[in-house]
Amino acid sequence: TRFLLTGGSGFLAAHVLDVLLERGHSVVTTVRSVQKAEAIKEAHPTFGKDRLDFAIVEDIAQPDAFDQAVISNPPFAAVIHTASPFHFNATDMKKDFLDPGNRSSTTRGEFWDSERVLTEYYLAIIGTTGILKAIQKNAPSVERVVITSSFLAMVDRSKNFGKIYSEADWNPITEAEAYDGQASGYRASKTFAERAAWDFVKQENPKFTLSVCNPPLVLGPIVHYLNSLSALNTSNQRIRDLMTGAAKVSCPPTMNYFFVDVRDIALAHVLVAEKSEAGGKRFFVVSGRFSNKEIAEIIGDAFPELKEKLPSGEALKPGDYPEEGTYDFDNSRSKSVLGLTYRSLRETIVDTVKSLQAVEAR
Ligand code: NDP
Question: Is any atom of ligand 1 closer than 6 Å to the C-beta of 180?
Answer without folding.
Answer: no
